[in-house]
Amino acid sequence: MRIVFGIVLLLFFQRASAQEELPKITLSYKDVTREEVLHQIEDKTNLHFFYLDQWLGTQKISGDFTDVTLDRVLDTIFNETEINYYVLSNTQIVLTQNNVIYDTLPEGFFGEDKSPFPYADINGESEAAAPVFYKEEKSARKKVNTETVRIGKENKSSRQNRYTLTGFVVNTKTGEPIGNLAIRLKNKNTGVSTDDDGFYSIELSAGLNILETRSLGIEDSQKRVIIYNDGQYNFSLDESVEQLDEVVIQADAAKNVEAAGTGETYITSQESKNIPLVLGERDVLKVATTMPGITTAGEGSSGFNVRGGNADQNLFLLDNGVVYNPSHFFGLFSALNPFTTKDVNIYKGNIPAEYGGRLSSVFDIRSKRPNTEKFTGEASIGPVTNNIALELPVIKEKAGIMVGGRSTYSDYLLNAIDNPDLNNSTASFFDLVGKYDHNINENNDISATGYYSRDAFSISSDSLYHYSNQLFSLAWDHKFNEKNKGSLILGNSQYKFNIGYDGDSNNDFELGYVIDETDLNINVKYLHSEAHKFTYGLSSKLYNTQPGYIRPDGSESDVENVDIPDERGLESAVFISDNFKVNERLLVEMGLRYSFYFALGPTEQRIYEDGAPKSEGTLAETKTYSKNEVTQTYGGPEVRVSARYFLMPDLSVKASYNSAYQYIHTLSNNTTSSPIDTWKLSDNNIKPARGTQYSLGLYKNFEGNTYEVSLEGYYKRSQDILDFKVGAQLLLNETIETEVLQGEGKAYGVELLLRKSGKLNGWIGYTYSRSFIKLDGSNAEERVNNGEYFPSNYDKPHDISIVANYKFTRRYSMSANFVYQTGRPVTYPVGRYTYNNAEYVFYSDRNAFRIPDYYRLDLGFNIEGSHKIKQFVHSFWNFSVYNVLGRNNPYSVYFVTQDGEVKAYKTSIFSVPIPTITYNFKF
């Protein structure tokens, strides 16, 4: 270090004069540091430079000058740096970082406001470059450490007075990005929030700006930013003591009022910690079903129904990879490890333009970023499952790996089900997940996620079922400049099931199904200005399905080998959206997505007679297509528009319009989703489904965001929804188009949500909704219920969820979860008739009746271990009782004819209270 600033200031006040004229010099240098160049200049002249060593860095430079003035040499040397220089005398040159040294104070500094260019005040509202003065502020409030940050290089000739500051904010302890962090300009009613990646962009006035950061669970901070050019500033923040209070929170409590999108739900994995769920297993997707508009067809169903949509109309993404079946154990558990899952963003109203391929919703699930600071872990031991997740730094503060595993080790649960036929059944599952994240530099980050899950169960002694999910995704995030950043994502997902039959006769077989997809996505974000934030890109995915096969199992089996021909399809899209801040009250998000789909060979496509029902008798011809030959094309525009308008600072109204195409369908004639449902691609005979949705809502926060209230209504229409004919045979059917129908759907509803934070925290969600379908063809066999609208299998008008947690102390809390739902529709036999001396049952119109209503109460008591920071293990005990009231809720109702009588039977999953003790610990 050559000087300290005190000496510089002393010299400055001793000789404050105009800069001396610099001598001419001849100089040549190659691949040397800037400090070495300054030493060469000092050797050639009588000049001496004063600076701090760390300012100059270690970058190597080259240059060649012949008889030029020294200021030209210095301008070249410091051109791409933040270094300015000041000629103090004919022998002394002072270097400064960022700022310029001024010979005189600006006019008006001592109270005379005569200068046309006043110096910057604390808010940086200067009209041109000028010296910056600030003083330390004292406050009676809690002391907040203020760091001074200098961005860019001051230039006296610059007339620009606004610059853009961007960067990333991470958690000091874990290295994970801090999303929804409020960054506000002090004494100004402006600010921004970080996105899910911890990224922010804010416009600042030239000169001095005071930035304040606030977020629940994160320590408040102040940054004194002196900015002279567009630049980047990445920083980390510490967790606050308040994070030890486990409450249901949102990272940005006002986001529900401020964001433009409708129907958005954000859930953290932490929110599932204190909610009593079946067998004490944390489950972020089960928490989602307590939110308005999200439900399941029944207890034990593996699918989700969102705003009156079928279970196949939801897109589940884990780190951008598709999960086709997000459930374990007949839908009782989520297929996601709660210890490796960070959060989930659910879009059920206005779906952003970058997502496509489903009509109802997107569940964008993100796993945690590995801890790059130290080795950490979390584990749990429960009555049915055990779980562990480990995080290990690979390169300190740069790269880390996270691995997690979960499995079940008991089959006693099936013995508790009120069905004697299931008492001897078995079931097991496991899932594995791994993630690697590497921050190469400030502009590049790569991450890779791998996931595999497998379920095996036997409902009878002669059949064994297997189904599995696997995915891999690789993402490269790149920052092009201060305004542009993008992601390149490559992924592969696969879902398959297998049924093995081993009976007493010679009909042993193996039956299976496979769907595989490979996708590529390019997503770019362009921060044009504070008013316009663009997102654009393209996506493409290649589907390969093996629709089904059956093969003999063993040399003595008489089963014939059958293979349904494979299907292939290519779905692609381009998209662009603009988050447009019209003014302080109005925010509009406009998006357009154009998707297109190609059905590909090799395949044989059957052509049927026009106007006639599809059957073997109306088959006109069969066309054969070679590999990769396009057999059919579909596509069209998908419009995504939403707007938010502030009626008051904490009260907003939102409206949206959403349209979408879906090129893939599930084939199922069950009333609930099943692991052996198959997926069917659109082709010459089966069109893609299309849907539109309108939403309108009011959003209000009370008492400093302690209370959150939202009321939202929606109306949906859909076309070419796939359904089945009565008695349809869907599995291993090569002419599947003869067994299905495509019709219209409509759904509407109102959703009310009241949330509270604090000592008593939780939410109340109520949904009134209706869902209908119409199957009306030109022929009688293509009509259901005379071609009139009838309730869908998942039509449940009333749905109420109450989730509450009361904290007695920081360590002890009690939780409750109450659910009520209208019984789902069912088709009942209403009479009998005799034909050809045989008796038959006559059924009602489809879904004309309902099973009994569903309600359930769960209670839990939570005990946390010591909150000592230096404690090696932090423990958490959960004592819960599922279905406290012992309600015998029906899972399904079916009918059997015995001795000439039709008898009704009801199946329940849990008909008695289920107590659970679970032990969790972190280290």
Automatic annotation (TrEMBL):
<keyword id="KW-0812">Transmembrane</keyword>
<comment type="similarity">
    <text>Belongs to the TonB-dependent receptor family.</text>
</comment>
<keyword id="KW-0472">Membrane</keyword>
<keyword id="KW-0675">Receptor</keyword>
<dbReference type="Pfam" id="PF07715">
    <property type="entry name" value="Plug"/>
</dbReference>
<dbReference type="InterPro" id="IPR036942">
    <property type="entry name" value="Beta-barrel_TonB_sf"/>
</dbReference>
<dbReference type="InterPro" id="IPR037066">
    <property type="entry name" value="Plug_dom_sf"/>
</dbReference>
<dbReference type="GO" id="GO:0009279">
    <property type="term" value="C:cell outer membrane"/>
</dbReference>
<dbReference type="InterPro" id="IPR012910">
    <property type="entry name" value="Plug_dom"/>
</dbReference>
<keyword id="KW-0813">Transport</keyword>
<dbReference type="InterPro" id="IPR008969">
    <property type="entry name" value="CarboxyPept-like_regulatory"/>
</dbReference>
<keyword id="KW-0998">Cell outer membrane</keyword>
<keyword id="KW-0732">Signal</keyword>
<feature type="signal peptide">
    <location>
        <begin position="1"/>
        <end position="18"/>
    </location>
</feature>
<dbReference type="Pfam" id="PF13715">
    <property type="entry name" value="CarbopepD_reg_2"/>
</dbReference>
<protein>
    <submittedName>
        <fullName>TonB-dependent receptor</fullName>
    </submittedName>
</protein>
<keyword id="KW-1134">Transmembrane beta strand</keyword>
<feature type="domain" description="TonB-dependent receptor plug">
    <location>
        <begin position="280"/>
        <end position="358"/>
    </location>
</feature>
<dbReference type="InterPro" id="IPR039426">
    <property type="entry name" value="TonB-dep_rcpt-like"/>
</dbReference>
